[in-house]
Amino acid sequence: LPLCPHEPEIQLNGNQREIGKLQVKVSCHGARAWSKYIPVEVNVYGKVAVAANSLNRGAVLEAHHISIDEVNLAALRRSPVFDSQSLIGMEMKYPLTSGGAFSMEAVRQPMVIERGDIVQLVAEAQNISIRQQGEALQNGAVGSVINVRNSSSDIVVQAEVIAKGKVKVQL
Asked: pTM of this prediction?
């Protein structure tokens, strides 16, 4: 490259992530202006939650399944988990090999209700509480909304899963 009489301008090429393999544009403005695209690799290391041993799909995470390790964040495809406590009690959506970094996309709340389970339907308003028995028509994790058939009326309602075997209907 020709000598630049002042500090060259450096900018990312397009909408790239700021870590990993990328292209930067180096430009010199002036009488003999020039621009050059240069491939660079930016590695950033951080301590993240990783699998202490290989985990299968459906495994419910406990403290001994998780360790903290320093990894190259630029090499990760998904957002890593920095707080290992947020993983405790979560269920693996797919297998993870020993040493693999956890991501929130790889885990979910465990299913506490399975399709066909008999559940307690709870409806509350002010000081009134109504409880009925129903049949879960879908699997559900705490916080998810599932269809439930009221055993008394045979009516299908949508209810929020609040605990194992218990759903809440909005009045």
From this structure: 0.65
Residue 155 CA to residue 144 CA, distance in Å, equals: 20
6: part of which helix (H) or strand (E)? Answer: none
Query: Which amino acid, 97?
Result: T
For residues 88 and 91, give the distance between their C-alpha atoms in angstroms, rounded to a whole number: 9
| Banded pLDDT at 122 (limits 50, 70, 90) | very high
Residue 64 in 3-state DSSP? helix
For the segment 137-166, the average pLDDT, to the nearest whole number, is: 94
Which residues, 6 or more positions from 156, have their beta carbon under 8 angstroms from its beta carbon? 137, 147, 148, 149, 150
Residues in the chain: 171
Read off the pLDDT of each residue in 31-38 and give the average, rounded to a whole number. Answer: 88
Which helix or strand (DSSP H or E) is residue 80 part of?
A: none
Q: Count CB neighbours of 33 within 10 A.
A: 10
